[in-house]
Write a structure and sequence with these properties.
Oligomer: single chain
InterPro entries: AB_hydrolase_1, AB_hydrolase_fold, Lipase_euk
GO molecular function, one term: hydrolase activity, acting on ester bonds
Bound molecules: 2-acetamido-2-deoxy-beta-D-glucopyranose
Largest sheet: 9 strands, mixed
Pfam family, one: Abhydrolase_1
CATH architecture of the domain at 45-215 and 288-294 and 333-418: 3-Layer(aba) Sandwich
CATH topology of the domain at 45-215 and 288-294 and 333-418: Rossmann fold
Keywords: Glycoprotein, Hydrolase, Lipid degradation, Lipid metabolism, Signal
Helix content: 40-55%
Distance between the termini: 45 Å
Protein name: Lipase
Radius of gyration: 21 Å
């Protein structure tokens, strides 16, 4: 990742174009006469514009979190025939664009066509959620948050808004960091969570990170040493968005393969699922930045093997938490049913860590679904060529099962106990 960033920096500026050339097959990119190629204009649009371009309705809902961040949720819908709103939370280094930028294979549009009301959350610090009532993104203090704050501030305000507008309990779908956020939220506010959520669907779940295969495992012990320089160079961010990088990775299949190869040690390899038609667009649109404490917090989870609050060192921990080490997130307090989708070649969200997570969710139902493609890696959850049959259609099916289960459950139990 760092290498790719340096590569990107070294590139000369490409002329800014409002669209990107895409082709049906990788071989088509090398032909001048290709009728299998055209310009995809999504690359120059924002999330709302893309939703509208594909024929769906879009609404922008800005919210103010308790600690002063202004965050955006984008609602996408067509004909709403299903009662359960779907809230989607993105992963690290991305934003809600990742759920609308692969055309009709996008999870958002698949769910919209089935009649679901979809709400795309943009966590603090990302492209569309970068304002604060007193700080700007150039202030180091702006970036003093981890996924913990997304879980105790961003997600609650988002779920409250969806309930206020729809008067319905939602199903939350998270990817990667978006799953961590949901475990933070539903373990700290278990009653609130079960009053607002029928279920949680986790794509590439991340609570424990001690069994990862990714190269990050070997880098993790060194983060505390590198951190001060990163802090100095990027002023609270890690890897700021770099448009030149996206353009390099987009130009032709050779460069797309180079960029993919760089990610292999982090994500796992799966060249088979590289999507010739959408990879140029996703390479431009998906990358976003992240705050340094998110990286530090994940680093701590890798190093300690514990899913716990962020550590500030013994002294400050004592003041804040009353103990020398931070408290654990109490997974056993979670009462919302959870289904995990796990890739067998995902080097970050591994099968073993998913099983550990499930085994600790003792007060709710936890199911693990494995993706039926042996090379499925971490990035495939967002960009795989076969994402529709292999993942997104199954997610839609899982939503339906959760709704049915919730209905039969709430008939048996008086409404007053179920919640709102
Ligand atoms: C495009 O050009 C290639 C060779 O350059 C040729 O084999 C192919 O038939 C051409 N396709 C069309 C649609 O003209
Ligand atoms: C997207 O672009 C449109 C048109 O310029 C603008 O009205 C809208 O506010 C933008 N939305 C976001 C989230 O940037
Ligand atoms: C998606 O669009 C492609 C053309 O871009 C089309 O071939 C395919 O059938 C569409 N799939 C669905 C499920 O609508
Ligand atoms: C998984 O994929 C294989 C072929 O790739 C197929 O034979 C099998 O039926 C699939 N299993 C499920 C459960 O879809």
């Amino acid at each position: 990742m760092l290498l790719s960033y340096v590569l990107g920096l070294g590139l000369i500026l490409f002329k800014h174009v409002g669209s990107v050339r895409v082709c049906m097959k990788f071989s088509d990119y090398f032909l001048d006469n290709g009728t299998n190629c055209w310009e995809n204009t999504d690359a120059d649009l924002n999330v709302t514009q893309i939703i509208k371009k594909w024929g769906f309705n879009a609404e922008e809902h800005y919210m103010r979190t308790e600690d002063g961040y202004r965050i955006l949720m984008v609602r996408s819908y067509y004909k709403i025939t299903k009662s359960t709103p779907i809230v989607i939370g993105h992963g690290i280094y991305m934003n809600s664009l990742g759920f609308v930028d692969i055309g009709n294979k996008s999870l958002t549009f698949i769910l919209n066509k089935l009649g679901y009301d979809v709400w795309l959350l943009n966590f603090r610090g990302t492209r569309y959620s970068s304002e604060h009532f007193s700080l700007t993104i150039d202030d180091i203090d702006y970036w003093k948050f981890s996924f913990h704050e997304m879980g105790i501030y961003d997600l609650p305000v988002a779920l409250d808004l969806v309930f206020k507008v729809t008067r319905q309990k939602s199903i939350y779908i998270g990817f990667s960091m978006g799953t961590t956020v949901s475990y933070v939220y539903s373990s700290i506010f278990p009653l609130k969570a079960s009053s607002l959520l029928k279920g949680i669907i986790s794509l590439a779940p991340i609570a424990y990170l001690n069994k990862i295969k990714s190269i990050l495992k070997y880098g993790a012990p060194f983060w505390p040493m590198i951190k001060p320089s990163v802090y100095f160079i990027w002023k609270g961010k890690v890897l700021p968005r770099n448009d030149q990088m996206g353009k390099f990775c987009t130009k032709n299949p050779t460069q797309m393969y180079i960029c993919e190869s760089i990610k292999v040690p982090i994500f796992g390899d799966d060249f088979d699922q590289l999507d010739p038609l959408y990879r140029p667009v996703t390479n431009i649109l998906n990358p976003d930045t992240i705050g340094i404490n998110v990286v530090t917090h994940y680093d701590q989870i890798i190093n300690t093997g514990k899913f716990q609050w962020i550590s500030f060192g013994k002294k400050i921990n004592h003041l804040l938490y009353g103990t020398p080490t931070p408290p654990l997130y109490r997974l056993s307090d979670i009462m919302v049913p959870i289904s995990l989708f796990v890739g067998l070649n995902d080097w970050i969200s591994t099968r073993k860590n998913a099983e550990q997570l499930c085994s600790e969710l003792i007060n709710t139902q936890c199911l693990i679904k494995y993706i039926n493609h042996s090379k499925w890696n971490h990035g495939d959850f967002i960009t795989a060529r076969g994402i529709k049959p292999l993942l997104n259609d199954r997610v839609a099916f899982e939503i339906n099962s959760m709704e049915l289960q919730w209905e039969s459950y709430s008939i048996k139990i008086p409404r007053s106990i179920v919640g709102i």
